[in-house]
Structures are given as structure tokens and as C-alpha cells.
Amino acid sequence: MTILIIEDDPIQALNLKIQLRDLGYMHVETASNLQEVTELTQSNTFDLVFCDIHLPDTDGISLLSEHLTKDIAKAVVVISIVDDSILKLTMGMCSQLGYQFVSALQKPLVSDELASVMQSYQDSRQKTGTPAIDINLSDVDILDGFEQNRFFAVYQPQFSFDSGQLVGVEALVRMEHPKYGVVAPLYFLPLINQAGRMRDLYAVMLDKATSAVSALGGNVKLSLNVTQDLLESDLTFITTQICEQNEFPLSKLTLELTEEQAYSSSHQALANIARLSIKGVDFSIDDFGTGYASLEKLVDLPFSELKIDRLFISRVKDSYRHQQLTMSAVRLAQSLGLHCIAEGVEDVETWEQLKALGVDTCQGFYTGKPMSISELLPLYQVAKTTEMDASEPPSVVVYVDKDSTRGVAIQKLLSKELTDHNVLFLPKLEELNNVRRDLPVSMIVIDSDTLYNTSEKDRIALSNAKNKVNTVALVSDENDAQNLVFKMPYLIKGETITNTAKQASSFVLQSGQNDVTSGLLKLSERERDVAKLLLAGFSNKYIAYEFGISEKTISTFKRRIFSKLQVKSIIELSGIIKFDE
Q1: Considering only CA atoms, which of 290, 298, 291 is closest in space to residue 273?
Q2: Distance (Å, rounded) from C-alpha 347 to C-alpha 318?
């Protein structure tokens, strides 16, 4: 990590450099004027810059706005003795310029305050997934992304302040790149927009998200962002067609527009909004308070929801101005009968203030970071009721068979037998990774013939699947040697496909009730993770921090684990389940 200190007082610059080294930050450069800054930034970039507002040949405000860029300096800490209102104004300017992290310190610098700012900076890097390497995508990467199914959705949960129930999720796009791993949208959305493929991305996201959220069941609503280009396209046709194909009610869909998009709506955009509203789709004003739409324009459009931007929410606990602005937004929403969502809630103090203000729904790291649909499934089960629910969660069962004709036939038979499950057929093992990424898979059943002559990709996919789902089982001939090689539960093929399907469906229904290999199969993946940390002696507070959810939710997980395994203490739990080292 590289740091630049811009300070004309050599003693104060040295003092700050020593304090940073005491905190473990060794790569620190200093500059005392604009010329030195220019020379250093010609061939270097910096993760963090400490910048004094008063400099001999320029001021820090001009330097940050005109001479540094977010590509040269990713984060900024403003240091000065100016009035607090000017300091906040400078911070706001830096945020608008796109710096990933912005903070401030008053002179003279205090060690504890510096340590607190550096911890906040590290926390922000972790939450935003700041990459360890530079990410440079090309048009070819975007083309491959569509052709190789590399775009996928993660879901940030939305909880009711009143009931604590999960009431909705916002689907957020990510890209799985063969070199860079999971890539954030800021790296690929501009390229997709330049290529004119936002419509294609919307179709992919809507298809994946409606399929996944349908598997959750219940009344969870789905939110998706739409752009101005989409509003000008055949948005109504795409949305209606995909939702009908996935049997997803349009009344459970919310499309989010920014204030700017709402303000500049054309006749085509207004027609799409009107037609979709008639069909039951809700529309939300996203990032409310950061745009410039007139209130009259917003009132004229059929919005049913208002999302207060995180810029206000993040400061609501310690800034009187932000408290008043947030309160005004909430009162506006209430007076117009709009559902009000606060996004960017990251701590219990903010949560409590917003609840007191009467905000309807919470979205943020405090109640849940963006997660895969499989991670969301147990969270949904816990949150949907304050009482323990003994019913099993909805699930997706995947049947894998290299013989497509036989596989499709067995899938149809299984669907008739397993009416409470979603049954999916795959002809190749290597497709398991994408399916598990996009859908809440709980069980995989594989025809043993498919395992012969498996490729390296197949073996990796199978190994990953065995670690991430409740059960992986074989449909096998009697005494098949593969049963011993792959060490998986198996069932014997029937004389007919119908008999085989019945045996497979019986196995699926009974697997959740059998105490195979301890009590682990009775628990969801998230419940197993919580149980493992509980057995290791970690507190609810620590576990909540690890998973990015509230302590209250962890307590509910704990009660659910105890209920499923019929134990009353951690000591009893340790006698029921064991984890491999």
C-alpha cells in the first residue's frame, strides 16, 4: 500500500509519516508543493493521499480537484485547521470527484484519531472489494462475458424496520472473469454501455434474478436498476416476456430509476413506465436527494417507492444537517404514500435512528451485504417469521445425465413427484458451477455413467459441489465401482426410467430426514457456518461481523440450529455434529 503526504510544514509531514509507520504503513512519500506533487504523480499512483488545504503555491482544494485524479489517488484524507463546514464541503467535493474513500483530520493530528481513520479506510477497502491488481477489460472480455455466461447476480437483502422480515432483494450485477475473478460493475458497465448492450445485460439479469427469487417462494420483492437507454427500448416487452417464462409475478418486480433519469424521461420512456405500471410493476426513485428532478415531475410519475441515498444515511447518526435532510425525505415519502427505503445502513446506531424516523425498509451492510442466492436462502428462512418454522426451505434439485434424452425424461418424472422442489436437468458436470452460482441448489443427483472419463473441469465442479450443497448422490447400477471411488450416497437404478425416478424422488425426500454423517445435512450452508463458529467459541457479535449481518439474526440462526438438532446448549451441539479438520 502506497501513501502520499502533501504538507508544506516539514515537521508536521515527518510527524504524520512516523505515526503512519507506527501503524505499519511503510511505503510513504511526501511532497510540500505543487511541483513535487506533479513530479511524484507522473510515474506513481497512490492508494491514499493526506492533503493539507493550505499550501504555498496553491490550495489543497484546487490540487484535489484539478491536479489529482481518482486514477492517481484512490482515497483522500483532508488535513487542516479550517472551519468544520469548509472541511465538510471539501470532503463533499472529493466524493463527487469519485475518490473511493474520503475522510478528514483536524490539526494537530492525534494518534488515536489517525488510527481510527486508517481502520475506516481498511474497512472500506474490504467492503468495496478493492482489487489487489489493476483490472483492464476490453471489448473482447465483454463479448466473452455474454457468450460464456460470466455475468451473474448477487442479492442485497432488504428488511422491514417494523417486523424484521426480509421483504425484498436488490439484484446487483457482477462478472466472473477467468483472470481477475469476480469483477465489480464499475469496470465493465461503461464498456457494455459503449457497445450498446445494456438491453442484453438487463435481459440476462432479469432472467437470472426472477428464476432465483422464484425459488425462494413467499412474497419477497425483486428490485433491478434500469437505465435511460432501457427506458427508450422495448422494455415492456422484454420484462413481460421474461417474467412470464419464469412464472414470476410482475407485481413482485420493482424497477429503479435515478432522479436524473426520471427528470429527462421522453415519451417512449413514459409509455414504458405507464404500460409496466398497469401490469403491476412498481417504480422506485433511486439515490433520492442527489439528483435535480423537480418535485412536480416526481409527483406526476407513478412512483411507489423512494430510496434515500447512502450519502445522507452514512452521516445521519452524527450530522444534524444530514438528520434533517433524511427526516425531510422520509416525511415527503410518507405524505405522498411512497414506500421509503434507506440504503447504506452500516451500524446499529444508524439503524435505530432510521427506525425512529419511520423509515419502512433497511438495506445495507448492517443487515446483509450482497450475497449469492444460496447464501440468501437460509437468511430468508430465518427472517420470514419470528417464530421457529419447522418446514423445510424451498430447494432446487439438479439431475445430471450425459444422455440428454434420458435426463429430460427423468427430470419431468421427478418434477411430478417432487412438487415442492424445482428440478433442473444438466447434461454436463462442468455446468454445475454456474448453476450453483445462480440458483439455491440443495441437492445434486448424478447418473453414474456421467462420471466415467470425467475431465479435470468435471472433477473440480463435482468437488466444489460436494462442499457446497447438502447432498450429492449417484444413480448407479448395483455394485458399481464408482460408488467406492467417489464416496457418495447412491441408489440403485430401477428396471424402468419411471422406477428410477421414483427411487430418486424418495431419496430426495428422505435425505433431509436421515442423520447421515452427523447432523450436518439437517442444516443449511449458512447454518453450518454459524454452527462451526459457535463450536469454535466465537461470540454472536464476532459471527455477525464475519457474515455482515446483525447479532439478532445470528441469535435466530442459533435458535434454529438448536431446534433442528433438538439440543439446548453448545455442549450438546458438539456431541451431535462434527466438522472435518
Answers
A1: 298
A2: 12
SS3 536: coil
> Buried (b) or exposed (e) across 397-406, using 16+ Cβ within 10 A?
bbbbbbeeee
Cα–Cα distance for residue pair 368/550, rounded to 1 Å: 8
Contact by Cβ (8 Å): 212, 438? yes
Q: How many CB atoms lie within 10 A of CB 355?
A: 15
CA distance 536 to 367: 24
Listed in sequence order, the residues at least 6 apart from 230 whose beta carbon sits closer than 8 Å to its beta carbon are 198, 199, 202
User: Residues 157-181: pLDDT tens digits?
Assistant: 999 888 778 889 999 999 999 888 8
Nearest to 389 by CA among 250, 544, 524: 524
Question: What is the C-alpha separation between 362 and 278, in angstroms, rounded?
Answer: 27
pLDDT digits (tens, 9 = 90+) for 185-233: 888 988 998 999 999 999 999 999 999 988 776 688 999 999 888 988 9
β pairing state of 48-52 and 2-6: parallel
Rounded Cα–Cα distance for residues 292 and 259 (Å): 7
**In the chain, what percentage of residues exceed pLDDT 90?**
19
Nearest one of 427, 480, 431 to 458, comparing CA atoms: 431
Alpha carbon distance 315, 92 (integer Å): 12
Q: Which residue has the cell 459503449?
A: 194
Question: Which phi and psi angles does 443 have, rounded to 5°?
Answer: -150, 145
Task: Determine the angle formed by the axes of helices 235-245 and 267-278, rounding to 10 degrees.
Answer: 30
- Is the model's pTM score more than 0.70? no
Provide CB contacts within 8 A for 274, sequence distance 6+. Answer: 302
Q: Read off the C-alpha cell for 224.
A: 433491478
